[in-house]
Amino acid sequence: MRYFIITGSSRGIGKTLTEKLLSPNHHLFCISREVNNELLSLAESNNVSMDYFDVDLKDVHKLDDLMNQIIQKIDASIIESIYLVNNAAVVKPVEFISQSEPNGIIDHMNINLIAPMLLTSSFIKYTKALKVDKRVMNISSGLSFNLKPMLSCYSTSKAGLETFVKSIGVEQGDVKIMGVRPGATDTQMYEESVVTDERASEIKLAKTSYAAERILTFLLDRFEHGKVVKAW
Ligand SMILES: NC(=O)c1ccc[n+]([C@@H]2O[C@H](COP(=O)([O-])OP(=O)(O)OC[C@H]3O[C@@H](n4cnc5c(N)ncnc54)[C@H](OP(=O)(O)O)[C@@H]3O)[C@@H](O)[C@H]2O)c1
């Protein structure tokens, strides 16, 4: 059995990624604030084990317990591999930093940076006894280095996430870690991010199926420990 923990599965790239992983020898753990009932029914009709956790990742103090609960559901006698995909993120606040409410900045950093760090930390800790292939994939963005006005929180959280991948890459061998940057993809997040970009209408958006396929290729076939790569 291959186990997958996917954050941000309710819509966008994470939802399509989860759909592509619906297979009877996969057990999927989905995390988002809204439970995606369509995914739960699809899993049931395809005979796939799925546990859905409606969790707000900004409640960062609950995440160690969440990971502990998930790892306890794993059957050590049949596990082949386990994957954590830190995909959930927000783009807001999309505004000049002086206009942002303190809590808006704090929530953003908690969801986009602190939550993936804590989930990775707990994942490494609670899977220690499992002697199988263990991988963490963090979803970043080209905006980690391609800087634009009003997106400082997003660029900062994604740059931090990329540095985290590289740092854990040099300290860890047991669990492997990687980052990928999907290209511009047709999702709610993309719509929320382009308010400042005059050339937005010229950009050709990828479908979520393309982004999800590329992420899966790197996760399953072209995994490079400690590296962050573009996935388009
Ligand atoms: N779309 C693009 O052009 C693009 C480009 C480069 C990188 N990316 C990256 O790709 C990943 C997926 O983005 P997307 O475009 O698919 O975004 P999206 O359509 O807005 O979906 C975001 C997902 O994250 C979840 N999420 C947001 N806040 C959360 C919270 N507080 N707690 C738990 N879950 C939360 C949402 O679920 P709920 O609302 O139900 O909680 C949703 O499932 C992100 O890491 C993004 O930075 C996207």
Q: What distance separates the N and C termini?
A: 29 Å
Give me the secondary-structure category. alpha/beta
What is the CATH C level class, in words? Alpha Beta
Count of helices?
7
Rg from alpha-carbon coordinates: 17 Å
pLDDT average, as an integer?
96
Number of E-state strands? 7
Order of helices and strands: EHEHEHEHEHEHHE
The total number of structural domains is 1
Largest sheet: 7 strands, parallel
Bound molecules: NADP nicotinamide-adenine-dinucleotide phosphate
Shape: globular
Which residues sit in consecutive blocks of at least 5 with pLDDT less than 50? none
CATH topology, which one? Rossmann fold
Strand order of the largest sheet: 3-2-1-4-5-6-7
CATH architecture: 3-Layer(aba) Sandwich
CATH superfamily: NAD(P)-binding Rossmann-like Domain
Beta-strand content: 15-25%
The amount of helix comes to: 40-55%
Description:
There is one protein chain. It contains seven helices and seven strands; from the N terminus they run βαβαβαβαβαβααβ. The chain has 232 residues and is of the alpha/beta class. The protein has a single domain (2-230), classed as NAD(P)-binding Rossmann-like Domain (Rossmann fold, 3-Layer(aba) Sandwich), CATH 3.40.50. α4 packs parallel to α5 (152-171). It is globular, with a radius of gyration of 17 Å. 39% of the residues are buried. It binds NADP nicotinamide-adenine-dinucleotide phosphate.
